[in-house]
Write a structure and sequence with these properties.
The chain is an alpha/beta fold and 370 residues long. It contains twelve helices and 15 strands. Helices cover 40% and strands 17% of the residues. Helix 4 links the parallel strand 3 and strand 4.
Length: 370
């Protein structure tokens, strides 16, 4: 039985190197302190149209964008309900979050076929093609986790999208929750019908908003369906935006004010330079991991935003995390689930740089005696 633990006012602030949430700029935090205003006022239209159109510009997409008050998990449900009728869903699983997405799909009553991989392995486009080409295979959707946060694997969604594009009746859904904004993807070029993220990851915003980019084909698919998600319905969200320039339900206005401020920073940096900075951080972290430990992810498929490090030295992962937090005020993450002590994870996303990541690895070296 969980008991109340009183929230206090004297916590020490820590620098976050988690797989999310990540650190947020001070001026982005400050932006949330504006006086509250009505979500049906013209001021809200100014705010919401700004963040939607700025997101399109940043991601270099002409597809529609939904910014919803929810975690990214909402779009696991919504994309399934919006795009899957009576057909099957092909869900390659290679870690905790792709397996969870398959479980959510089943919970919604949709039949799922898995392509199962060992944790640490990447989804292979040829396996997806074979599944789609099998006798009797008729899939409404293929779902792929772009960045498997539990294992540090970056799945080749571009190549997978090119495969799915050969099957025009099948929709391609990408969970990019821990990648989008730090790992460039050309959405239209690879036929992605719906790609979604949570803003507390590579967007480096406070938690509480999710973003979904929706193709015209996906919108039309839902509009022809007899059922769809109510809260995250493409048609409901996008038609309301077209008519009113607002959200159909009450939004978290302070979070959207923070979003506006941070997206201006992201536009100033540009998507390409942000991608390059994340590449540099990933390359540094991988090099450090290979020098002292090893990488858990399959070679050639390493994440751009989260490095999962195999604990080949058998260090006390939990103890090292605690000591680094206490002595250096920095927080990184243990491994996920069954690989908790076998691995640990460093999130290098958002506003971090190679220099700030090096500060963490120096602290780990000191505490672990490397």
């Amino acid at each position: 039985m969980t008991k109340k633990r009183e929230y206090k006012d004297d916590y020490t602030n820590k620098t976050l190197y988690l797989p999310g949430p990540t650190d947020v700029r001070e001026d982005v935090i400050d932006a949330m302190a504006e006086p509250v205003f009505g979500h049906r006022m013209d001021r809200m239209t100014d705010l919401y149209t700004t963040i939607v159109e700025d997101t399109k510009e940043f991601l270099d997409t002409d597809n529609d964008v939904i910014v919803l008050t929810a975690s990214g998990t909402e779009f696991w449900e919504a994309t399934t309900l919006n795009l899957v009728d009576d057909g099957r869903v092909l869900c390659p699983t290679s870690g905790a979050f792709s397996e969870r997405q398959a479980n959510v799909t089943e919970r919604l009553g949709k039949p799922v076929d898995r392509i199962e991989y060992e944790w640490g392995e990447a989804v292979k486009p040829d396996d997806v093609r074979a599944a789609l080409a099998a006798d009797g295979a008729e899939y409404d959707a293929v779902t792929v986790v772009m960045n498997e946060t539990s294992t540090g694997v970056r799945n080749p969604i571009e190549e997978i999208g090119d495969v799915v594009a050969d099957y025009p009746e099948t929709y391609f859904v990408v969970d990019a929750i821990s990648a989008l904004g730090g790992d460039y993807v050309d959405i239209e070029a690879h036929g992605i019908d719906a790609i979604f993220t949570s803003v507390q990851k590579a967007f480096a915003m406070p938690p509480g908003l999710s973003v979904c980019v929706v193709s015209d084909d996906a919108y039309e698919r839902e509009s022809e369906s007899d059922s769809a998600s109510w809260y995250g319905g493409f048609q409901r969200c996008l038609d309301y935006y077209d008519r009113k320039g607002q959200t159909h339900s009450t939004p978290a206005i302070p979070l959207m004010l923070a979003y506006r401020k941070q997206m201006k920073h992201m536009l100033e940096e540009t998507h390409e330079r942000r991608d390059e900075r994340h590449r540099d951080m990933a390359e540094y972290t991988r090099s450090w991991a290979r020098e002292h430990f090893d990488l858990f992810a399959e070679a050639g498929y390493e994440s751009r935003t989260v490095t999962c490090i195999e604990n080949t030295r058998g260090i006390d992962v939990a103890g090292t995390i605690d000591t680094v937090s206490e002595e250096y005020d920095m927080v990184f993450s243990s491994g996920y689930g069954d690989i908790g002590e076998e691995t640990f994870r460093i999130g290098h996303m958002g506003e971090h740089t190679v220099e700030s990541v090096r500060a963490l690895t120096d602290a780990i070296e000191d505490v672990a005696g490397l």
